[in-house]
Amino acid sequence: MLAAISTDYYTRPEQDRITPSTSVLAALVRVLHLNDAQRDYLYELAGRQVNRPRRTVQKVQRQLLAVLTELSVTPGMILGRYLDILAWNPMAAALLNTDFSTIPEKKRNYVRHIFTDPPCGRCTRTGRPRPTTPSPGCAAGPRPVPTTPD
């Protein structure tokens, strides 16, 4: 009885005698420890829409953007809670050899950038050949900072 439904009620949707509510489906997902794909399939079988939690769009505060703008000779980047690249200056774009404005906003993520474009610009400035995989330091460097909800 982990999902707070009886075995009889559990068998009714299997036999297509009833359509379970979204709260029952959510309880089954939780109790059965279903991953996202399995959850989506369960909701599809039940003819229900999946209620996915949406990430809130993070905005850069004006004061922080002003500081970034003033950093004319120092590379700077403002990362969001999930390491999304929210803002950058020209020096950061030059250092990473990437025009972030050409990357769609939903795909503009620092970790994604490291793993999908590992030979970033800073690797070539040393005169050494470009690596084919990100260095451990590159992958271990970014850490999200715990913050309070907005």
Automatic annotation (TrEMBL):
<feature type="compositionally biased region" description="Low complexity">
    <location>
        <begin position="122"/>
        <end position="138"/>
    </location>
</feature>
<dbReference type="InterPro" id="IPR041413">
    <property type="entry name" value="MLTR_LBD"/>
</dbReference>
<protein>
    <recommendedName>
        <fullName>MmyB-like transcription regulator ligand binding domain-containing protein</fullName>
    </recommendedName>
</protein>
<feature type="domain" description="MmyB-like transcription regulator ligand binding">
    <location>
        <begin position="60"/>
        <end position="120"/>
    </location>
</feature>
<dbReference type="Pfam" id="PF17765">
    <property type="entry name" value="MLTR_LBD"/>
</dbReference>
<feature type="region of interest" description="Disordered">
    <location>
        <begin position="122"/>
        <end position="150"/>
    </location>
</feature>
